Amino acid sequence: MKAHLAAAHTYILFQIAGTTFAVHSQSVDRIEMIEHVTPLPNAPRFIDGVVFTRGQVIPALNLRCRFGFERIPPTNRTRLLVIGKPDRMVGLIVNSAREFMAIMPDMIQPPGESLSGLSGEYLQGTVTVGERIILVVKLEEVIRLSQGMEEIRGGA
Amino acid sequence: MNTGPGNLFTGFLEDFYAEGEEHLASARRNLLALEPLAGRQVTGSAIEELLRSFHSLKGLSAMVGVNEVTLMAHVMEEYLRDVQTIRSNVEPAAIEALMDGVHAMEEVIAARRKGLAPPDISSVLNSLKLTAAKGITEIPTDTVSTPAGTAWHFSFVPSAELSDQGINVGVVREKLKEVGVITRASPRVLNSGIAFDFVVSTEKTAAEIGTLIPLGVTLKPAEEPTLASAAAEAPATAPSNFVRVEMQKLDELMRLIGEMVISRAHFDETIRSLENRLAHGDFRTLQEVHARIERQLRNLRQAVMQVRMVPIAHIFERMRFVVRGLERDTNKHVRLEIKGQDTEIDKLIVDRMLDPLLHMVRNAVSHGIEKEGIVTISARTAGERVIVEVQDNGRGIDLERVTAKARSAGVIGSKDSVDVAGVLEVICAPGFSTREGADLTSGRGVGMAVVRSTIQELGGSIELETAAGEGTKFTVTLPLTLVILDALLITLCGQRFAVPQSEVREILAVEALAMRRLEKTNLIPYRGGVLPVIHVSEFLKFNANFAEPQATIPRPRIHVLVIGSEGKAVGLIVDKVTGQREIVVRPISDPQLRIPGIIGATELGDGKPVLIVDAEVVARLAGQQKEAFR
What ipTM was estimated for this complex? Predict the structure, then answer.
């Protein structure tokens, strides 16, 4: 009867534009299918709109857009990662989230110089598993940064 | 009984429902209390209270012509009176029959309330009659033990004149309760309308009574002699400090407060806009007054919400009864544990949660528990929300069976299978039900789909945990209170929005050709003058709207919402006005979602958020933007 994926150091993997990202499963409250996002007019640039979860209205933050790619319409593999903070709940729209992986802390390499651009701010580091390169996301940063950009309204 | 003046009778019916419900609840409670004593000699308060409930139900239902209830209540009362007089044992079968009777009464009343044909009660009535163990050939109109005192006969003939003075049968009945104990009440059809007869037992003198009874009531000593009182002690009619209030009146109160909340927001904005135009001291004073109003309004709102709060025990207690019935129907042994039944929650939420709760408890017993087990229902408050859990320690949800069923119902693809994470989604899908047809326990077949949509409409959510061999738990999160307002549903840029109706003065449909342009402002003819109109859609920018772009197709007619006060009115052009309904407002609290003009979201039953627009703010902001472009 475990409700949450609470095992330590388990990461949820998802793809964005062909790149694999990982978030610590502990910060993810749950993963939902995206049934409907209600577009919110005049919203910050990364916000697609709002969704209901547990009766609460929460923002649906488009991670693809957050990472600098253009928006694409949702598919049936699109998922909403619900990040549950005590003070705040945020939904992250990702292209797919189907894999879990146990990652040891020492497997995470700090982001190199080459990654120190825009993306460097929200990366905790990289993990290499065989051929695969996985980027580990600093969730707080993803959410906080976009909060700082609150003033940047989309569209105009 | 249809001869009575309509509105009067309707009000009377409402009274009957409310009071009937109370008596039924009390009857249920006492039957459950009686159950452990089955097969033994029973005396004491449970029987007395049951007698009182059935007797009242009989009187009430006779008054409004719900004959099925009258018949059943009568037989039940007869039986219990015999039990009481000859001090016989109460057999378990008798308790079952009584419970069936109470259940049947509930169904009759529910059907009546919905204007449906009452269910067939003949089998229930027969088993009740068997229980009463004597053939009852006719129903006497009156078999009452009268409490001490003199019986008086009152009759009341309602009329339009009396009704104008606020005197209706409900008022009369209340007054008569002040006079004494109403031992009989029945309607009588007259040539010209209807009369209500009451027999009231009181120790007051005629003169005293005279001062109490309202106009239009006649009085004479009752012809029938007072029966030797079987119950020596008079029924405990404890003085009550409670007032029964119609929910509608509370709703109206909430609506008025809702309007005040919106006005307060406008007041605040107005004050802010004056900052540079007023002397500093004046501005400060205004701000302080505003802060005080805000605080008082918040207190007022809380106080009214408090009035609407009732303990969830109202519906939890009912589950005991349901589980009992299910136990019998399924031959399972189920213990129902109830926790936190004192948890208070909005009356509307409690009422609306009855069917979902019923369904989940039924599910737990019929699908979860195998031979014996425990079903726990609990409630607790967590911040501004109430968490209700329905848990069983049964076999857990059989994912393979759900998968098979979901495939055949077309809920999932023929290759897909259902896992723990997805099972809630599947069982809540419309058209999914693991048992074909209506078996004994699946009841009215509400279905999990309806359970979930009801919960969503209330602003809540449902979650499920299940594990094979360990059990299943539904967790329902509900708001503590509701803010309800009347809203217009509109379409803008192809998207649904809701606008508080209190903001909209008028809805116009205007020929597009009638629109004129003056400099940068569009004008339409309005009440002999002109009204500036604003294309809201130009102001609303969406990041991700993958829906078909609703380009500015020239329409022959445009729809305009008229906003703002006389002289300052402005029109908002919308795509369509699709309807009007009462909505439950859910706040948008996330800092990233504070968008001027969007005051909240609501849900219309399909799980999709619909944004609530403050039309005045949008009109003003759109106007300002326009000015900036000049």
Answer: 0.82
